[in-house]
């Protein structure tokens, strides 16, 4: 019988100003085991796993975290610790082109992909690997681009090997201005020109290599402590840094969003959590999909894009919504 323990936050944001707390979080992450996986096209990506914390409760379920664009798996150290302490085995993926996974050449800072389906193919392999390591109920928790990857994976497979899926600030649509069809045409044209005239990918105008933006200029979170923590992390580990996207990435991402909106409805329990003040993804696309597919959706008012790295009050609201939903998904407690 499926049982998902309630997720409980372990840290307050201001604790991240304490070097001892940061060191403890770092030590927790260092105990994760990194497994290098190779996709069907030979690209190397990474899966990180940890099955328990000494002295804490026995795991009753497993959690697979699917990060968003730019993100390294390490960025989810706080959430991973929350989940471990709550009674989950934890798995986190480094997508191709991100974190410590294989990067595009000749510019490893470029967010690029030859086909968006490659991400979902990689996730399929990662889920299979997770299932080879645990038989516990498996919950997938995805953020932003990771949500698009997870949803497309669920659309592509008749046997998802997952028991439930949560999409946080999902990239089910990308803001493209008042003329979305024209934007899709321009993206397609530019990626074709790029392929014809240049081996290196072209950044979408206004984007470039990684920038360490100050908190005042960020559109991701209202938590200065959490924002500074992951910015410091990316300074400490320069290999995690990633810049803007290529025209090819944008073209394939827009195609994936169309497939999400028009494709089959996955047969697993699903929850959408929406950031009310999100400017990174298209909230109307989330509303449209939720209405068409009868997916439960909750909005965290005034929250910015990174719900899982928001203020303490926002994270508590996120966890409360997840826990109430998990109670309804579960069929009863089990060992």
Automatic annotation (TrEMBL):
Membrane spanning stretches: none
Matches recorded under InterPro entries: AB_hydrolase_fold, Hydrolase_4, MAG_DAG_Lipase
GO molecular function, one term: hydrolase activity
Start and end residues of each Serine aminopeptidase S33 domain: 58-309
UniProt keyword Transmembrane helix present: no
Entries under SUPFAM superfamilies matching the protein: alpha/beta-Hydrolases (SSF53474)
UniProt entry tagged with the keyword Oxidoreductase: no
Domain of life, source organism: Bacteria
Keywords: Hydrolase
Protein name: Alpha/beta fold hydrolase
UniProt lineage: Bacteria, Pseudomonadati, Pseudomonadota, Gammaproteobacteria, Chromatiales
């Amino acid at each position: 019988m499926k049982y998902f323990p309630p997720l409980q936050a372990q840290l307050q944001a201001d604790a991240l100003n304490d070097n001892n707390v940061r060191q403890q979080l770092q030590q927790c992450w260092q105990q994760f085991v990194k497994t290098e996986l190779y996709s069907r096209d030979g690209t190397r990506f990474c899966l990180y796993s940890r099955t328990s914390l000494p002295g804490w409760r026995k795991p009753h379920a497993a959690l697979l975290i699917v990060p968003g664009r730019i993100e390294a798996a390490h960025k989810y150290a706080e959430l991973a610790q929350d989940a471990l302490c709550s009674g989950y085995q934890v798995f986190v993926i480094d997508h191709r082109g991100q974190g410590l996974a294989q990067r595009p050449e000749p510019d490893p800072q470029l967010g690029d992909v030859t086909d968006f389906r490659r991400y979902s193919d990689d996730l399929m392999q990662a889920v299979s690997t997770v299932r080879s390591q645990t038989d516990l109920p498996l919950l997938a928790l995805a953020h932003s681009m990771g949500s698009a990857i997870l949803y497309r994976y669920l659309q592509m497979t008749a046997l998802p090997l997952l028991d439930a899926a949560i999409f946080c600030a999902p990239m089910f649509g990308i803001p493209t201005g008042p003329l979305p069809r024209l934007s899709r045409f321009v993206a397609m044209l530019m990626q074709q020109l790029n392929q014809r005239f240049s081996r290196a990918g072209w950044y979408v105008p206004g984007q470039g290599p990684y920038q360490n933006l100050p908190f005042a200029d960020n559109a991701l979170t209202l938590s200065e402590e959490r924002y500074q923590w992951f910015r410091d992390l990316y300074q400490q580990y320069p290999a995690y840094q990633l810049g803007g996207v290529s025209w090819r990435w944008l073209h394939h991402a827009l195609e994936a969003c169309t497939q999400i909106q028009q494709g089959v409805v996955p047969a697993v329990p699903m929850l959408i959590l929406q950031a009310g003040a999100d400017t990174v993804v298209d909230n109307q696309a989330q509303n449209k999909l939720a209405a068409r597919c009868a997916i439960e959706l909750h909005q965290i008012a005034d929250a910015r894009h990174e719900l899982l790295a928001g203020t303490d009050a926002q994270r508590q609201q996120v966890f409360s919504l997840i826990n109430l939903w998990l109670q309804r998904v579960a069929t009863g407690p089990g060992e």
